[in-house]
Design goal:
The protein is mostly helical. It is about 75% helix and about 0% strand. The chain has two domains: about 80 residues, Uncharacterised protein YqeY/AIM41, N-terminal domain (Hypothetical Protein Yqey, Chain: A, domain1, Orthogonal Bundle); about 55 residues, Arc Repressor Mutant, subunit A, CATH 1.10.10. It has seven helices and no strands. The radius of gyration is 18 Å and the shape is globular. About 20% of the residues are buried.
């Protein structure tokens, strides 16, 4: 079953159980997937679905930051709950230790890169991490590269 089909099935289940937060989140996910499918004019594969859902998570994290700054904790909590639900449809995210190990390996392979080579290190590290099939945030990789290159 594809991610899109799973979202649709879970949406029906949420309607039956009258779980409003879950239902609204699933509807938002389904709408995002459908919009992309219409733009592409062909069905989405799971990799594309995962990218869309990762974008939705990033948007929610930005919203949490803004709501927290604005003193709207109840809205920030709602966004955090939505993130937890969206993450159930994605592969497990990599931890900082795993990212740091991959970045160190990339740096070792490249010899002794400097801060000027950060773009190349980032590109190689991201390719290596994405090849594993796990989900990784570019910001975490960027911060790790900067730290290890001494920037």
């Amino acid at each position: 079953m594809t991610i899109s089909e799973q979202v649709q099935k879970d949406m029906v289940d949420a309607m039956r159980s009258r779980d409003e937060l879950r239902l609204s989140t699933l509807r938002m996910m389904r709408a995002a997937l459908m919009n992309k499918e219409k733009d592409k004019r062909s069905p989405l594969d799971d990799k594309e679905c995962q990218q869309i859902l990762a974008t939705l998570i990033k948007q929610r994290k930005d919203s949490i930051e803004q709501f927290t700054k604005g003193g709207r904790q109840e809205l920030a909590d709602k966004e955090a709950a939505e993130i937890k639900l969206i993450e159930t449809y994605l592969p497990k995210a990599m931890g900082e230790e795993e990212v740091a190990a991959a970045v160190k390996a990339t740096i070792a392979e490249m010899g002794s890169p400097t801060m000027k080579d950060m773009g190349t290190v980032m590109k190689n590290a991201m390719a290596k991490l994405q090849a594993t099939g796990a989900r990784v945030e570019g910001k975490m990789v960027s911060d790790t590269v900067k730290k290890l290159l001494g920037g």
